[in-house]
Known about the structure:
With 178 residues, the protein is an all-alpha fold. It has helices at 2-48, 72-114, 122-146, 152-177, and strands at 65-66, 69-70. Strands 1-2 form a two-stranded antiparallel sheet.
Amino acid sequence: xxxxxxxxxxxxxxxxxxxxxxxxxxxxxxxxxxxxxxxxxxxxxxxxxxxxxxxxxxxxxxxxxxxxxxxxxxxxxxxxxxxxxxxxxxxxxxxxxxxxxxxxxxxxxxxxxxxxxxxxxxxxxxxxxxxxxxxxxxxxxxxxxxxxxxxxxxxxxxxxxxxxxxxxxxxxxxxxxx
Length: 178
């Protein structure tokens, strides 16, 4: 009689822990989809507008002379530099926004779902890692397809920013598997 009751209690505990595992995997998948959405939104913006911010209209610069010397090429180079700096600052802003929008949910998921856990099954960690890798690959490939392979470095950087956010959760999870 005691053995049957013990098996029932054990099976109920396994069922409850499996429900927790399923919840964690579903929330983790939603987080990965959120990160894919963020990077693809940036890729669509790059495709639509690109980094074509031109606060200095270089085409209008003609025949500038100082003390009889033509300095038009120097002024044009300064205009190109100002435009490049503006594009760089905007790209860094996008990167910081992506980091914030992906890091806050990663920390929340880690705190809420892994706070009270003492041990996590290795197979759950493996599935989470495979979902993570598949999400990163999809994120990078789809963003390159959207931008027609013209913005490889910005898309790689945005993918790495989201990859950093995912490592927060996976590192805690790996610590709980050992």
